[in-house]
Specification:
By secondary structure, this protein is mainly β. It has no helices and 20 strands. A hairpin with a 3-residue loop joins strand 2 and strand 3.
Length: 235
């Protein structure tokens, strides 16, 4: 059982001129043997892509890929004919399955910022899938909203894993409960914006805590805060 904090400045970094990345886990040239993922959660990349630039066509397979766009517009194209614009407040999902090629570019008008998330699938192979969902008009104030789930509950995006991504936007002084983890699951809490207190510990912007304790936690916003929670199997 554990309650492990990772501060924002402990993340890996990459600067490629057009791409500015911060890595929660080992990725590309950043390697930390102690940070290879969290259960089924393999990647949380905090990316800023400069306007008009991006990732050309490249392959993926056997990974559930979720992009949460926080600024600008991300333009997607893939080898199965899918093409879309994902605006800030929208979420894109691609199941790479047995293999897919795709490209991701920021629009020409402005930089794009996003969290790129990789979750290991419950089975390898299968037909690649694509979906996107607009959460801009969903009320997130002081309540949990399910963005991703195994079964598409509450109008979330369904993925091929027993994993959930939830979010809330807490007003200053408000508290919200985080349910206890079961023995074979864990929760990773990421502060996107703001400052919160949990179990007496203050977490600021881009700080994370990994929880595998069977305990209910109270999360208090010390100022207006935006939080993501990843609830994943640990096996």
């Amino acid at each position: 059982m554990s309650f492990i904090i990772h501060k924002a400045d402990q993340r890996g970094t990459a600067e490629h001129g057009w791409l500015h990345s911060r890595f929660s886990f080992s990725f590309a040239e950043y390697y930390n043997p102690n940070r290879m993922g969290f259960g089924a959660l393999r990647v949380i990349n905090d990316d800023v892509i400069e306007a008009g630039l991006g990732f050309g066509m490249h392959p993926h397979r056997d990974m559930e890929i979720v992009s949460i766009v926080t600024k600008g517009v991300l333009v997607h194209t893939d080898s199965f004919g899918n093409h879309g614009e994902i605006h800030a407040g929208e979420i894109q999902y691609m199941s790479a399955g047995e293999g897919v090629l795709h490209s991701e570019f920021a629009s020409k008008e402005e930089d794009a910022a996003l969290f790129q998330i990789w979750i290991k699938p419950n089975e390898k192979g299968g037909k690649p899938l694509y979906n996107q969902r607009d959460f801009r008009d969903v009320t997130k104030n002081n309540q949990w909203v399910t963005l991703v789930s195994p079964d598409g509950r509450d109008n979330s995006i369904a993925i091929n894993q027993e994993a959930f991504i939830l979010t809330t936007e807490l007003s200053e002084g408000k508290t919200i409960s985080i349910a206890s983890s079961s023995p074979d699951r864990g929760k990773l809490l990421l502060v996107v914006e703001g400052s919160v207190k949990i179990d007496g510990v203050i977490l600021d912007k881009r700080d994370e805590v990994q929880i595998t304790e069977e305990k209910i936690y109270e999360l208090e916003a010390l100022k207006p805060s935006w939080v993501l929670v990843f609830d994943v199997p640990m096996h």
